[in-house]
Design a protein that fits this description.
Layout (H helix, E strand, L loop, with lengths): L6 E3 L4 E3 L4 E8 L4 E7 L2 E6 L3 E8 L1 E5 L7 E4 L3 E4 L4 E6 L3 E8 L2
Length: 105
């Protein structure tokens, strides 16, 4: 899906890591949420409250998910899931455009 219809977008950006990671919240009519964002190259650690699916629209990064021992390369067109209440690490190699979906269980 390349565009969303009938949504509400929060104009104010979420800004992390001194502006190197930014996103905006998109809320759908059913109450579900996604964030659309950009990550500059760098190393980051994130924490989750809800289960997340992160779709990489463009760019390249490496991810270390909870319980994994090896970094995995992810490129534009790929996605990965992160469990709820977890921390995960990213090594963003190139400017990365992403869409994060929050999954309530």
């Amino acid at each position: 899906m390349s565009e969303f219809e009938n949504v509400t977008v929060v104009k104010a950006a979420n800004v992390y890591f001194d502006g190197n990671v930014t996103s905006r919240v998109v809320t759908f009519n059913d109450g579900s949420r996604k964030t659309l964002g950009i990550m500059q190259p760098g190393d980051y650690e994130f924490g989750t409250e809800e289960k997340e699916t992160m779709e990489i629209l463009a760019g390249e990064l490496e991810i270390l998910l909870p319980g994994d021992k090896h970094w995995r390369t992810i490129q534009g067109g790929e996605s990965f899931e992160v469990p709820a209440n977890a921390k995960f690490s990213l090594k963003v190699k190139t400017l990365t455009d992403y869409c994060c979906s929050y999954i309530s269980e």
